[in-house]
């Protein structure tokens, strides 16, 4: 069964020393090279999630290999498929024995330019009919992101080729691709999870804070 976990970074600053010591030295060095404090914190949160959740599944070796388009795979635990994303103040991890893709995005303050390069014609038409267009755009985009990550591809190759709406609205399943979606809204963030149609949908989103891990 697929599961997903979210780490709220609001209190993570209080546990920075413990958080860094949680990781191998090479991971610490990589994170410290990130230029902005916000991105360092989010990258740290993503790694903490992977190590914390992975250990509950009995994983102790977190060495990675990477797919054709950079999707990480744990070398010693190929049956533990996972995916990470972060935005705003949240980091999220999805895992399963089957492929997973996950994305979290903070709802934008304005619509991006050149929507025709991002959205399919059907999605553009659907978006024009919505009062809450920024929220709907984020739901479409996070579906696209989670879908291509589930496939192990890159979103920027041609995001407008994938259509995430149908006659009933936002798609819940893409039967022709063999995947399904879960969605969660938290404050001004949208989370989308893409899993195989043969996988079990998570019963809940597990929400963690720094104090849950380090205190």
Task: Tell me what you see in this structure.
The chain has a single domain, classed as Ribosomal Protein L22, Chain A (Alpha-Beta Complex). It is an alpha+beta fold. α2 runs antiparallel to α3. The chain is about 30% helix and about 30% strand. It starts with a strand and ends with a helix.
Structural category: alpha+beta
What value does the average pLDDT take?
A: 93
Helix content: 25-40%
Identify low-pLDDT runs. Answer: none
User: Element order, helices and strands?
Assistant: EHHHEEEEEHHEEEEEEH
Assign an overall shape. Answer: globular
- Largest sheet geometry: 4 strands, mixed
Count up the helices: 6
Whole-number total of structural domains: 1
